[in-house]
Amino acid sequence: MSGGTGISLESVDVWFGEGEERVDAVIDATISVPLGGSFGLVGESGSGKSTILRAITGLAPTWSGRISVLGNNLGKTREREFYRSVQMVFQDPYASLHPRQTVDHVLSEALYLHGFKKPDERIIKTLDDVGLGQYFRFRYPHQLSGGQRQRVAIARALIIEPSILLLDEPTSALDVSVQAEILNLLTDLRAEHNLTYLMVSHDLAVVGHMCSDVAVMNLGRIVEVLDVASMRALKADHPYTRQLLEASVQRRREV
């Protein structure tokens, strides 16, 4: 799958509450993610980047503007067919897996919900795809490391063969030594399955590793969109983007 647009947002506002209690979390956001592309949303905590993912998936229902996925304009509700195409990998692999369900149960449930047949073959193949193998099939989350749990979460998203993955800080809860493994896995999976990624991170180095283009968010607004080559060359127009880049460079020097 190539050509065309995977995800498009035009003048999207997202808010919580009404009247005097209303909080504007995202203001006038416009982005375009090509099919097969990998696009990053970066910014500090509270900048609105994760809220954009939640608006796309229907978890943040109060929004205005236009959100389009695979050429279809989205309304306020999401049909099952939407989730066949779009899956999300959350930040915390500890919270996203049920402690009393085996890996097999987690993956079988995803297949059952979307009407897939031959679960055994699909489960074994998907576990191989994420670097675990069938030996992990009947283990519980407490028997897995953080990195292994995140691989299961990725497998759960991948097993129904979506074309788009929304990645919400997928490595931030993991040890530094494991982060690179998961990022490399996600890079390989995108190439193998021709996936489209929209990735949220506060870490510019992570986005630089994964994405070709980046939108920088501050206080709910996208202040700048730039390609990764410009980001690596520290070529940014907006003062906030330059501040983020300089802070990232400083952190790397201190490591």
Protein model, in words:
This protein is an alpha/beta fold. It has one domain: P-loop containing nucleotide triphosphate hydrolases (Rossmann fold, 3-Layer(aba) Sandwich). 38% of the residues lie in helices and 26% in strands. It has 9 helices and 10 strands. The strands form 2 sheets. The protein has a 6-stranded mixed sheet with strand order 6-7-8-3-9-10, with helices on both faces. The chain has a 4-stranded antiparallel sheet with strand order 2-1-4-5, with helices on one face. Helix 5 runs parallel beside helix 6. The termini are far apart. The mean pLDDT is 92.
Helix count equals 9
Portion in beta strands: 25-35%
Counting helices, strands and paired strands, the structural category is alpha/beta
Topology as a string of helices (H) and strands (E): EEEHEEHEHHHEHEHEEHH
- The backbone outline, from C-alpha atoms, is globular
Mean pLDDT: 92
Topology:
Layout: E1 5-16, E2 23-34, E3 38-42, H1 49-57, E4 63-69, E5 72-73, H2 80-85, E6 86-89, H3 103-113, H4 119-129, H5 146-158, E7 164-168, H6 176-193, E8 196-201, H7 204-210, E9 213-218, E10 221-227, H8 228-232, H9 239-254
Parallel strand pairs: 3-8, 3-9, 6-7, 7-8
Antiparallel strand pairs: 1-2, 1-4, 4-5, 9-10
Helix pairs in contact: 3-5, 5-6
Keywords:
single chain; 255 residues; alpha/beta; Rossmann fold; six-stranded mixed beta sheet; 9 helices; 10 strands; 38% helix
Quick structural gist:
The protein is α/β, with parallel strands linked by helices and 255 residues long. It contains 9 helices and 10 strands.
